[in-house]
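User: I'll paste a sequence; please echo it back and then give the predicted structure.

Assistant: Echoing your sequence first, then the prediction.
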Amino acid sequence: MKLYKRLAIIVGIGLIGGILVVELPHAARIAHDPLVVEMSDIDLAKNADQVVSGTITKKLNTVREVGADGEDMVYTRWQVRTTRTVKGTHGQTVNVRIPGGRYLSTIVEVEDQPDFSVGQSVMLFLGKRDDWKGDYRLVGEFQGAFRLEGTGVSQEAVQSETGRRVKASVLEQVAIDSK
């Protein structure tokens, strides 16, 4: 009986030690302060591969990648059910990566990113990244994400970070004209 207890303690210590060896180098709170270049609605549309309206349906997960500089970067992945594709072609859903989030012991806080929530109605200006396996990024960081308020011709698109309001139909027309 004593042998089993000792063995259990040794295995437990080994497991904890293994976890620490793997995770300790990443156990940090990293704050990234990106410099965001101001973009007009025309710039957003011209640089976007996709412009879609839809609803945030779920937070998928977070992924951690090590950048070329050796620093960890964490992205939160969101699924959007598209109700309208203004530019580009896409299916019923699109996955969007937003810099920041929590992955195991790594927490990354990034300024100038939208704060998505499930059920939120949005218009997004999206760019492709080949190394992201089909996920999209926001063009212009927060500038490429608009919360939709109201319906029909009075629907407004609001940038959460700035509070800037514009008619959703105007943004759609800018995207259509950029094709």
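The domain at 31-177 is CATH 2.40.50.120 (OB fold (Dihydrolipoamide Acetyltransferase, E2P)). The chain has one domain: 31-177.
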